[in-house]
Each structure stands twice: as structure tokens, then as C-alpha cells.
Amino acid sequence: MFFAAQNFNRNVTVPWWETQILNADNHAVEETLRMLGDASFIVLNAEMYKLLNVTGYADTKTVEKLFIFPPGPPFADRMVHDGTVYSPECNCIYFAELHPPKPGFSTDAVPWVWRVNLNGSAPVTEKVYPKPQLTVPNGAYYHDGSVYWAQEGNYTHPGGIVRMNPLTLETEVVLNNFLGHRFNSPNDVVITRGRVAFFTDGYYGFDNFNDTLKPELANGIWRWDMSSGDVRMVAGEGTGIWLNPNGVALNKAEDKLYATARGKTSDDAAGQRTIYVFDIATPNALGPRLRDGMPLAYVDTGFPDGIKLDAEGRIYGGVTGGVDVYSPQGELLGKIKIDKGDVAVNMQWVGDRLYIAARDALYRVQLGCTSVQHYP
Hints:
Residues 157-356 form the SMP-30/Gluconolactonase/LRE-like region domain. This is SMP-30/Gluconolactonase/LRE-like region domain-containing protein. InterPro entries: 6-blade_b-propeller_TolB-like (IPR011042), Oryzine_lactonohydrolase (IPR052988), SGL (IPR013658). This protein is mainly beta and 376 residues long. The protein has two domains: 1-38, no CATH class; 41-366, Neuraminidase. The protein has helices spanning 27-38, 47-52, 204-208; strands spanning 8-9, 20-21, 41-43, 64-68, 80-87, 92-98, 113-117, 124-128, 137-143, 146-151, 160-164, 171-175, 177-178, 181-182, 185-191, 196-202, 220-225, 231-236, 245-250, 256-261, 274-280, 290-298, 307-309, 315-319, 322-326, 332-337, 344-350, 353-358, 361-366. Strands 3-26-25-24-23 form a five-stranded antiparallel sheet. A hairpin with a 5-residue loop joins β17 (220-225) and β18.
């Protein structure tokens, strides 16, 4: 921690400012925690002030709350929103809704996704209905006029990658197997300018949601050459670092791949809760390969779900309480906070504004940077 206390405790499901002080007479520490709880941002490095476009802590800066999501169905214990992806064709953001169930229930394959329409004087968040509907979609990426979803699938629909027209909402399954084996629960996808997709595949559907067949493959990161059709695993459980990989992102030069891993559960103290970075080897006849995978950052609360980069190489991870911001070297620069009790799931830039999709609400903050992703 960044203060001294004689006795304290905090489990992995709560942020810093909710640390429990066990010696009740430590008023100075309690006041520090109260100030952290009231703040909109936490700055640990002066670089964070530059990112926020402020000169110091006395300047006013806020996080807007744009939309509060309605309650989930009776069987769900929470709502999760993932797959935040911007399409310039419609000037809108799409993200998926997923209802992780209470024990004993399967995930509800809802027929809609959320769309944030940015064409008016204020953003409008609404339900829209892809056709055919997606089957438990998660992460998504924009590439060459289309939105590509990583969808988890269920017992009757194998998971894989689905392409969606952002204007008509028509969908098409473009990849759903490795030599006849079903993928397990594809979670997120990113695509290089040269049409090579990297996507994560974990055991979420079978272990957590009870809505997919027993896995036939190890979980890990897959590489799909969209031009040649070559599909191969490039970082898997056999490397000893993966248990339920999740978010995935590329840097601007597309020579580094960032990926997150959750572990067994998000509240597991022994879970991974880690952002990894890989070098992408020089492309050759076999296509881009990953090498030198190593932990870049270990988060302190929950696990890094969605992950994004800005044009200057900073890394953003959605965690309990807000968004962690890291330098390219993995130093925690600060936190963008959201409402107490809420969990940031994923993010998306539009211009210099970062939209944060959380379990309870949609937020927006203006920053001094733009996305790593280029839009035509």
C-alpha cells in the first residue's frame, strides 16, 4: 500500500480505498482512504496528469456517467458488458451483454447487443438485434469495414469468430473450429493491418457458465491468417502461464501482443490477474509467431478483463473500481475511477474520449490521447 498502518486487510475483490483498517484508532490512514474513495482519479505518476490534461490534483476533472443499464433477468447475479468496438461507418460503439448466471443456470444467449449512437447532440444507448443473433458474444474488433466478434457459443452453436456488418447488423460465422475441434469459449480478438487475427480461448463456458460442451482443446491464444486460412495455437496452457486467457490487444507497430489471464475465478487470491506481453516475430512463410511472453503487470483488484492501448503505448485494463493505466514498461500510472461497487469490463476510444463499459453503467472521460487503432 501507499500508506503505513499497523494492521489492515483487503481481499482481491475490493479496491484500495476500501481497505479494512483493523486498528480503529488510526485516523490518519482512515482519512487517506476516505480521500481516495472520494477522488475521481488516482495519480501515482506525473505522467497521469498529462494524460488527464490537468496541471495537478487541484484541477477539476470528472468522469461522465452516460447510461445506467437495466437489471438483468431473474437468474443472473450480475450483468457484464464486453466487446466495446467503434465503427466509423455508423459512428457508433457496439458492445455485448452477457448474463453470468447463478450456480446451476446456463448463460442466457440474449438476441441483442448494445449500440451507443454518437450522431446526435448526446450519445444514445439502445438495444439492436444482429441477424442471425450472436451466441454469447464477448470481445470485438473493427477491421476493414466489419466488426468481428469473439463469441463463446453454447451446446448447440460452436464458439468462434463472427463478422458483423455495422450498418445492417447481418452476421456470418467465419471461423468456428480447429481441424474439426470446437474452440472452447473464444473471448476476445484483435486483427493486424495485414489480416492476421489473434484471439483468446478459455474454459469460461464449461467451467463458469455450464453452457458449452466439455473442452477438446487447451486454452490459450490462437492465430488465424485470414488470407491463407492457417489456424494455429501460438501461446497455450502448455506454456504454463495460461488459465482462462481473456483480453487481447496490439501496439501501434504491431510487433507486440498484450493479453490478460484471469485464472480459475476473478475472486481467487491465487488467480493470475496478469497482463502479459509477447513479441511478434518478423513475419515469414509461417506467419507471425509469438515469443518471449512475460508478465507486464499484476493487478491488485479483481482481474484485467478488457485491455486497450493508446497511440502512445499506454496500456489500460478494466478492473474492479475503474480502469488501471500502465506505462509501456508496466508501471502503474494511475486509476480512472467509476462508481463505488461497479466493475469496468471493457473500453473504447472515439477521438480523445474513452468510453468505459462497466457492469452497472456506461462512462466517458476525455483524455489527452487517442486510440492505437487507426480508422479510415
